[in-house]
């Protein structure tokens, strides 16, 4: 009985002690690191946008529109008729190529072939996902796309490099 009383008292003493939370090893808050990354990304985007602006200024033959979705485009072939444009769920067939801002072909239309793409249901170049919805059958549009709206920071791991803006000329063949 004496042993159980001692055991009960020891248990009460240890059960009531407070655990101290561990202090972080790195006193720098993670929000500061996040803010630094955001600022670096903004600076990179400004540099890319400046390169694209220089490219567009050099191209005096075309008039480029600025999309609110973060890319520029110009019509090579425009159809004035009031034809349908693709909507979510439609399957479209397109041909396209990919060039860099020096207009060196990275992927030709022949190499890429005819692409079947289901609008908003498949993964594809983000700017082209939006841009294709502007098109009517038979139209050809050239898109100038910054890396953050194309293949991102890493590129495609092959011909498209780190933080590389691209130019893509797309022709809409059909809408189903």
Model description:
This protein is of the alpha+beta class. Strands 1-2-7-8-3-6 form a six-stranded antiparallel sheet. Strands 4-5 form a two-stranded antiparallel sheet. A hairpin with a 5-residue loop joins β4 and β5. The radius of gyration is 28 Å and the shape is elongated. The mean pLDDT is 89.
Biggest sheet layout: 6 strands, antiparallel
The N- to C-terminal Cα distance equals 86 Å
What is the beta-strand fraction?
15-25%
Secondary-structure-derived class: alpha+beta
Strand order of the largest sheet: 1-2-7-8-3-6
- Gyration radius (Cα, Å) is 28 Å
Shape: elongated
Given the structure, what is the number of helices? 4
Spans of at least 5 consecutive residues whose pLDDT stays below 50 are none
* Helix content estimate: 25-40%
Count of extended strands: 8
- SSE order, as H and E? HHEEEEEHEHEE
Average pLDDT figure:
89
What's the short version?
This protein has helices at residues 2-15, 30-58, 109-112, 126-131, and strands at 65-66, 72-77, 91-96, 98-99, 105-107, 115-118, 140-145, 166-175. The chain has 176 residues and is of the alpha+beta class. Strands 1-2-7-8-3-6 form a six-stranded antiparallel beta sheet. The chain has a two-stranded antiparallel sheet with strand order 4-5.
